[in-house]
Amino acid sequence: MNTAQEKTWLKQTTQLIKDLLEGEGSGHDWWHIHRVRNNAMSIAEAYPVNGFIVEMAALLHDIADHKLHGGDEEIGPRKAAEWMAKLGIAPEIKERIIQIMEEVSFSKGRKPESLEGKIVQDADRLDAIGAIGIARTFAFGGFKKREMYNPEIPPVKYTSLEDYKKNTNPTLNHFYEKLLLLKEMMNTEEANKMAEQRHAYMESYLEQFYAEWDGKR
Questions:
Q1: Angle (deg, nearest 10), helices 91-104 and 115-126
Q2: What is the model's pLDDT at position 157?
């Protein structure tokens, strides 16, 4: 149960993120944060964790996504640290939240150390798959002016995180380069259960996509 002060901090942070990200068009908007928070809090109900840390980390995890800021992977944790210092959050709590932010991204390839971090990472990955994940993938591809699909450009199995971050492949390739891999990368059993149906939906979508592409349906 959050304290009155924690509830105030969460309310203020919610408003900050809304003001910063509302209307953003790449799929990393306020509603992405809203869904990740909901995912995280749903998963957290099954585990003995610090709910304030989970919720605050979920709210702040994309305060300044590196993909939209020239690849600067420190900008998000830096802005979050400045905000939490302004609120007056205790240094030890602030550091735990910053650590989660530094671990959550798929492109960094890190496995969170804390259970709170594992939950937030799972919550973020759940929003990258299923119906929402499909919509976000094509939104980001359009934002980056990438081809939707090109059968002459096959998916790539990246050998380094740097190569993954530099890729400009057609959007559909992203299903094979990331989205279809996420189900097996969930940290918690609760998230794994949620991922099963979303993963199956993506497989069904791809089957339909290729059939329509070839004029079979």
A1: 40
A2: 82
Q: How many domains does the chain contain in total?
A: 1
What amino acid occupies position 64? A
The owner of tokens 């509830």 is 7
CA 96 – CA 62 distance, rounded (Å): 16
Cα distances from 154 to residues 111, 128, 157, 212, in angstroms, run: 28, 21, 10, 19
Q: Which two tokens stand for residue 98?
A: 């910053």
Eight-class DSSP state of 183: G
Q: Which residues contact 17 (CB under 8 A, 6 or more apart)?
A: 30, 33, 59, 60, 63
Joined tokens for residue 14: 């919610």
pTM: 0.91
Buried b (16+ CB within 10 A) or exposed e, 160-181: eeeebeeeebbbbbbbebbbbe
Non-local CB neighbours of 97 within 8 Å, separated by 6+ positions:
53, 56, 57, 60, 80, 84, 89
The CATH number that applies at residue 50 is 1.10.3210.50
Residues of the chain with pLDDT under 70: 64-73, 107-108, 159-161, 164
- Give residue 16's domain range: 4-213
User: What's the one-letter identity of residue 190?
Assistant: E
d(CA 179, CA 147): 17
Structure tokens at 202: 């993506």
**Helix 115-126 crosses helix 51-60 at what angle (to 10 degrees)?**
40
One-letter amino acid for residue 161 of the chain = L
Question: For the chain, what is the radius of gyration of the CA atoms?
Answer: 18
